[in-house]
Design goal:
By secondary structure, this protein is an alpha+beta fold. The chain has a domain of 70 residues. The longest helix is centred in the middle third of the chain and has 6 residues. The chain is globular, with a radius of gyration of 13 Å. Bound molecules: zinc ion (2 copies). One zinc ion binds next to loops.
Length: 101
């Protein structure tokens, strides 16, 4: 259903096996997490889940596992922000085209 987006992802979701884990930042505490775009589970440890997608999730959207806000606001990181924060090391496909805008 969902067309393959340009937005990079960390891993394929091991729970629903359909969604992709995208990078989001919590607007309350600024913590970057991976959220499945299908089942909306949240992984806080990016290194662990990128290495092992079977590692257990820490929370479920919209609760933030870091600041424990029950209804945190989340913002999807852009490719530029990911590069700037050096989070591309956790991505499954580190921007293969290398094209910007
Ligand atoms: Zn999922
Ligand atoms: Zn938070």
């Amino acid at each position: 259903m969902r067309p393959k987006r340009k937005t990079p992802y960390v891993a394929r979701c091991s729970v629903c096996e359909d969604g992709l884990l995208r990078l989001f930042v919590c607007c309350e505490c600024g913590t970057v997490v991976a959220i499945c775009d299908e089942c909306e589970l949240i992984w806080q440890d990016l290194a662990a889940v990128s290495r092992d997608p079977d590692s257990p999730s820490d929370s479920a959207f919209p609760a933030c596992p870091a600041c424990e806000a029950p209804k945190a606001h989340w913002q999807k990181l852009t490719t530029e922000e990911i590069e700037r924060e050096h989070l591309h090391v956790y991505l499954a496909e580190p921007n293969p085209r290398g094209d910007d805008r």
